[in-house]
Amino acid sequence: EVQLVESGGGLVQAGGSLRLSCATSGFTFADYAIGWFRQVPGKEREGVSCITRSDGSTYYIDSIKGRFTISSDNANNMVYLQMNSLKPEDTAVYYCAADPTHFCSAHGLMSYASRYDYWGLGTQVTVST
Q1: Average of pLDDT values for 43-58?
Q2: Is the Cα torsion angle 73, 76, 77, 81 positive or negative in sign?
Q3: Rounded distance, CA 119 to CA 85, Å?
Q4: What percent of the chain is predicted at pLDDT more than 90?
Q5: 81 near 68, Cβ under 8 Å?
Q6: What is the pLDDT of residues 89-129, one digit of tens each?
Q7: Nearest Cα residue to 6 out of 21, 17, 19
Q8: Burial (Cβ within 10 Å: 0-12, 13-18, ≥19) of residue 1
Q9: Is the pLDDT at 83 greater than 90, yes or no?
Q10: Helices H, strands E: what count in the chain?
């Protein structure tokens, strides 16, 4: 059974940092992408970053470039999102998800409903002013 479990969320002041973790298990796919998404109540879910397991290729949306870094530890089936210089507008529930048939791409993040088949339950990130 495929499982993804997020952790590392919390309350932080603007300008601070958090590192989110995504523990994955049960994967039998030859290759896949892991994406990080966020959602604010009343708004659509937004893909912020992704990474391809095999070659480590990554993608970031413009609003988090230079502040967030995605990485993976394949030996331990972990994916991380290091978030620095956090802003109040980064406040959201953050989810990690797996696309079992495609590499990481901007198109994949935007088309998440048809690509990312497996999801964690999310972790809350709150950035205060």
Answers
A1: 96
A2: negative
A3: 26
A4: 93
A5: yes
A6: 999 999 999 999 989 999 999 999 999 999 999 999 999 99
A7: 21
A8: exposed
A9: yes
A10: 2, 11
